[in-house]
Amino acid sequence: MRALLTRIEQNTRLDRVGDPLQRAVQAILRPQRVRDLLHGVPLGHPLHPAMVQVPVGSWIGAAVLDLMPGQRRAATTLTAFGTVSALPAAVAGLNDWAALAPDQRRVGLVHAAANTVAVACYGGSLAARLSGRHGIGRALSMAGLGIASIGAYIGGHLAYKQGAQVSQSISELHLISQGWHPLGDLSSVPQRQLITKEIDDVSVILYRHGDDVTVMLERCPHQSGPLGQGEVQQVDGHDCVVCPWHGSTFRLNGGEVVHGPSGSDGQVLPTRIRNGMIEARLP
Predict the structure, then answer these.
(1) Considering the domain 170-280 in this protein, what is its CATH number?
(2) DSSP secondary-structure letter at 22?
(3) Residue 217 in 3-state DSSP?
(4) pLDDT tens-digit profile of 143-192?
(5) Which whole-number Å values give the CA distances from 227 to 81, 161, 266, in the listed order?
(6) For the chain, what percent of residues have pLDDT higher than 70?
(7) Cβ atoms of 9 and 103 closer than 8 Å
(8) Phi, psi of 45, rounded to the nearest 5 degrees
(9) 219 Cβ partners below 8 Å, 6+ apart?
(10) pLDDT at 153
């Protein structure tokens, strides 16, 4: 299975389907606040993984009830609820998928295809159950659960091996040693301009507003874009840095994500001014 997924990652022929679909998703899912909501920006982490628990839990519950006598009505109800709730989860997943790198989109396309077949099986199961053909309904449910499990495995590969929608910057915290680290004189940092420094070979950005200084990991949580090359903008009265790669936007006074495609906050380090020297440490 791992070898198959590796071939999928490298199969550029999937781009013939993926690229037009990506453009269509980006054209349909507007405005920006809709995309932000689907990315999970208000939560500070991706929304799609949380939403899929509803259909998956409903379908597993229906499978258990199908094995018990006298539970046809309850199993039908859970089948219907899982099938309906799969649709908004799919929309959130498509929104995340459209902002991924090409190799991630190829695997995500197969993940989506498997889940589409699973939803179709459950739709057929629901129709069969409502028409009284509970044997066929149970069989289609079991087929749907098996296919959804394959889709879940592919989704796990996408998240845990390829790092899709996982914070790409947080691992750099493990490279920073304990204690306070000097970053230069406060007087040498210009007002309201981004500058880049290093702590233990980890790149960070500094941003000064008056005598307050923000120190944030430079790598964008979304796809490791260089925030030090980003633009500073005012968003809702807050100074924010905009990633130059995909436009993810983070507050410079706390790191909170304001606009996606990142669903995760930027990582800010605690700072202090000591004898005119800026120092930062691990959270």
Answers:
(1) 2.102.10.10
(2) H
(3) strand
(4) 999 999 999 999 999 999 998 888 888 889 889 999 999 999 999 999 99
(5) 42, 24, 10
(6) 100
(7) yes
(8) -160, 160
(9) 168, 169, 172, 203, 225, 226, 227
(10) 95
pLDDT number for residue 22: 95
Give the count of alpha carbons within 13 A of 57, CB side only: 8
Both tokens assigned to 24: 């269509």
Amino acid at the residue 103: D
Radius of gyration of the chain (CA): 23
* Structure-token pair, residue 280: 């930062």
Degrees (nearest 5) of the Cα angle 41, 220, 30? 40
Low-confidence ranges of the chain (pLDDT < 70): none
How many angstroms separate the CA atoms of 44 and 264, rounded?
5
Nearest to 181 by CA among 271, 268, 276: 271
Which structure tokens are listed for 275? 């004898």
Please state, rounded to an integer, the average pLDDT across all residues of the chain.
Answer: 94
36-45: per-residue pLDDT in tens?
999 999 988 8
Q: What is d(CA 38, CA 261) in angstroms, rounded to the nearest whole number? A: 9
Q: Are strands 231-235 and 277-280 parallel, antiparallel or unpaired?
A: unpaired
Question: The tokens 């947080």 sit on which residue?
Answer: 170
